[in-house]
Amino acid sequence: MKAEQAGIVPVSSGVGFDELRARWAKMPTTVRFSSAADSPEVGTPFGPIFILLRGEETAGQLGLYEQFVAAGTGAGPHHQTTEDEVFYILEGEWEFTAGTEVRRCGPGTLIYAPADVSHAFKSVSPDKPGRMLSWNAPAGHERFYVGMAAARHSGRDPHEVAKDDYHVVFA
User: Minimal CA–CA distance to 61: which of 32, 96, 98, 97?
Assistant: First the structure.
């Protein structure tokens, strides 16, 4: 199912994003089993992202995503001002930048990018998409993915939407 069908919709401002996180913090948590097959999906220019855990399921503590990234593509330098991000490589070869370090990474590598630390990634596997898990704390990055898709379709500048609505700054 698409993310919007699961009720994961864009926010309209940074204040709205902060208010959403505050509401999540008051929600109860429950046990959850999930897989990509039964999780909301967001299409990106790089490949699909499956939202395995989201803010309303974790009292806003974290969001967890399975990402597929086409060979030769990825996210340019950016940072989140309000959340930490962790990546765990499942398949493929990657080039990751976190802070001032640039590394070639393969399956089993974990990358931690604290809030305000610039990071970027690119799938460099020649023959198939890369696959990784990523998670953010606190939760909310699932809204960012949906907001970026909506910006692309509406003609809004994605970098402005990222910064103004989701506290994500692209270099």
Answer: 32
